[in-house]
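Protocol step 4 of 6: structure prediction from sequence.
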Amino acid sequence: MHQRPTIRETATMSDPTAPPALPVTFRPGRTRAVLYTAAVACFAAITAVAMLLDRLGPGSGSASC
């Protein structure tokens, strides 16, 4: 039985000068989108904590020393 060619073999068969196909993990567009999403989520979480701390003010928490 003949196996189907892999992605890398297909890329080199159609154009021998083309770089090999990258796996999904290393696609720059998707990686960039994930990093931007993570950055926005971190920014939102830090902003929410800062707003909450600003509303509470010093000494208004339940912890007392």
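Step 5 (inspection) to follow. The radius of gyration is 25 Å.
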